[in-house]
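User: Predict structure, ligand nicotinamide-adenine-dinucleotide.
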Amino acid sequence: RRPAYSPLRTPAKHCHKYRSRLMAIPRRPLGTTGLEVSVLGFGASPLGSVFQEIDEDEGVASVHEAVKLGVNFFDTSPFYGITRSEKVLGRALKDIPREKIVLSTKVGRYGQEEFDFSAEKVTASVTESLQRLNVEYIDIIQCHDIEFGDLDQVVKETLPALMKLKEKGVVRHIGITGLPLKIFKYVIDKVPAGTVDVVLSYCHYSLNDQSIADILPYLKEHNIGVINASPLSMGLLTPQGPPAWHPAPEEVQKAAREAAQLCESEGVNLAKLAIMDSMRNPEIATHLVGMCTREQVAMNVHTALQALGVETEENGAKNAEVLEKVKEILKPVKNVTWPSGKPENN
Ligand code: NAD
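Assistant: Predicted complex:
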């Protein structure tokens, strides 16, 4: 087994403008993949203008800034902006040595209601992603939002097709993603050990929902790396609030608005509190935060460094006091989620 994470293993060469006073973001082993991923990962869905229309040049610059500041994990999908996220990320990757980053993209979801988990489609999809991303291999290929598909097809057809690509070296590791937690166990229990290397769960490890904690022991027992996406609950836990399409029930949105208002009145940033709280759990390798500007990257890197004790936390006592109040506000809606995909998968 790999030794437990230690900030001392942080590679100093990844420090950039904070070099004089900071170490870079610590990395944690991702299951038994052998990959070491930065605890703050770059969620590239905003590069597809999923949350708001973005400036693509700034998006490219934000990826470069992230690498300079020690972020090495990047996650995208053909679905985000219907290939736009992969294209913008691909523009940025042209100027980054391939071995510096751990790159994840997905197969199976191609539109809001468009899914195809067939072997033929996912195999072709990987080739297309390689072209858009300007790379020769994908570190982690993930089956995207499998609760919308037939889980038995994922078991019998999609994962075996990806295993073939793994044998060829086109993809290095395989994952599954989705919202309902029970889909992970369903698939992992049915495939040979070593087929699924990682799971990406979203909106289940944040201030309002920590339900992934229930399956962490199962995932650990099966040597599966855990990627937590959306520690901001897809924008719910931000000062500006979520996009109009956010699927959370109104009671959750209302509580999040109240939490944001409280933070504003106390002079504390809700996004910062949310990111810090998630990152402090060492059982989760990495937390993907959606970003598309250099300012956001710098802010979130700074937050990660404080969360992990690499830097002294600014206003630590005040943050702790407001965090308790925020948790109280969110308590009545704790772990309240929403249906996703086929009814039988929820
Ligand atoms: P998120 O919770 O990371 O929220 C992103 C939103 O928060 C964006 O609007 C972003 O601009 C904003 N934001 C980021 N930092 C901020 C800050 N410091 N202050 C205020 N606002 C800030 O949600 P997300 O982007 O959906 O999730 C992160 C990533 O995880 C995605 O980009 C994607 O890569 C991955 N993901 C995967 C799946 C899946 O595979 N099914 C689902 C959800 C997310």
